[in-house]
Amino acid sequence: MIMRTVIVDRYGPPEVARIAEVPMPEPGPGQIRVRVGATIVGAADAVMRAGSPRYARIASGFRRPRHAVPGGDFAGVVDALGEGARWFAVGDRVHGTLAPASGGNAEYLVIAEDAAVVPTPAGLDDAGAAAVVDGFLTATPFLRDLGRVGPGDEVLVVGAAGAVGSSAVQVAKALGARVTAVTSTPNLDLVRALGADLVIDRTAGPAQATAKADLVARGVSGYDVVFDAVGGWSFGTARPLLGPRGAYLTTVPSLGVLALAVPTKLLRRRRTAIAFTGLRSAAAKRADLELLGRLVAEGRIREVVDRVLPLERVADAHRRVDGGHKAGAVVLVTARVEATAR
């Protein structure tokens, strides 16, 4: 049996991502095979395709991509069981992630049944079910575990319309925080609809000054967490906005953040920190996916989809991610469909 898959076997522009036909994988002991309905092209996939910044090649391979099939997050239907697999049945709808491994940008994949895979929440189609995975599994450990966000905290989200940022707004609200969101003009209404208490248009003036004016007007000493979902700020930019024990958290591992993370933590005052959420255990991710299902059922988390493209337009998906203006997730579907945008 043959299936279509995305192949990236050299570093370069979006065009290096191509479609190939390869043998369909067979599930081994304790594994399930999923017929993929939808999968994601995210920022990490674009970095691994481009091989830039160069330090990313420590993980992806120095001369060429170590794993030719990209993509971590997926949603689909279980269509075969390996020997001893008993948690799922053929026909079950599931979603999850292969990260830190890859292989999701394909028509079929195999995954251990005790990996980060859970039943798909009712009410989500495959595109929506795939879209919520990456952002939620990134934003939740950053805000809940690293930032220790709780009721009444002040949280500023930079890049609030992206896949991670849109999840961060919703996660912070679910944790009881008051959320200020920074985004661009086309996405203001979207971010308000996600629950942000204040939305700052980064294209209309200095977002930092607007955020500071809001804090002063409300008599708040500073933000408990500034969560930079896109790496657009720095600790120096965020520091004047932080409360006495506030934290600047970023998803982008710059040399400055890596150098300051330990010293600022030891000082027990304003600090900066980063987490490599893809490296968490499968059990931790599965527990958060189960939490995600409950929050979706309660209407507290919803998917944000920038556009849906057929698998064969994977290069266009990478161009969209490279452009830096997407709102939510860029989804690839294996069915042959017309492209749709948010």
Short synopsis of the structure:
The protein has 342 residues and is α/β, with parallel strands linked by helices. The chain has helices at 43-50, 57-60, 126-146, 163-174, 188-193, 207-218, 235-238, 255-266, 282-297, 314-323; strands at 2-7, 18-23, 31-41, 73-81, 93-97, 108-112, 117-119, 154-158, 178-183, 198-201, 223-228, 242-250, 271-273, 305-310, 329-333, 340-341.
Strand content: 25-35%
The top-level CATH class of the largest domain is: Alpha Beta
Mean pLDDT: 92
Architecture per CATH nomenclature, i.e. the level-2 architecture of the largest domain: Alpha-Beta Complex
Into which percent range does the helicity of residues fall?
25-40%
How many E-type strands? 16
Structural class by secondary-structure content: alpha/beta
Radius of gyration over all CA atoms, rounded: 20 Å
Low-confidence stretches: none
* CATH homologous superfamily designation of the largest domain: Medium-chain alcohol dehydrogenases, catalytic domain
* CATH domain topology of the largest domain: Quinone Oxidoreductase, Chain A, domain 1
Please provide a written account of the structure.
By secondary structure, the chain is an alpha/beta fold. The chain folds into two domains: 2-133 and 279-341, Quinone Oxidoreductase, Chain A, domain 1 (Alpha-Beta Complex), CATH 3.90.180.10; 147-277, Rossmann fold, CATH 3.40.50.720. The chain has helices at residues 43-50, 57-60, 126-146, 163-174, 188-193, 207-218, 235-238, 255-266, 282-297, 314-323, and strands at residues 2-7, 18-23, 31-41, 73-81, 93-97, 108-112, 117-119, 154-158, 178-183, 198-201, 223-228, 242-250, 271-273, 305-310, 329-333, 340-341. Strands 3, 4, 5, 6, 7, 14, 15 and 16 form an eight-stranded mixed β-sheet that branches. Strands 10-9-8-11-12-13 form a six-stranded parallel β-sheet, sandwiched between helices. A two-stranded antiparallel sheet has the order 1-2. α3 (126-146) packs across α4 (163-174) and α3 (126-146) crosses α9. The protein is globular, with a radius of gyration of 20 Å.
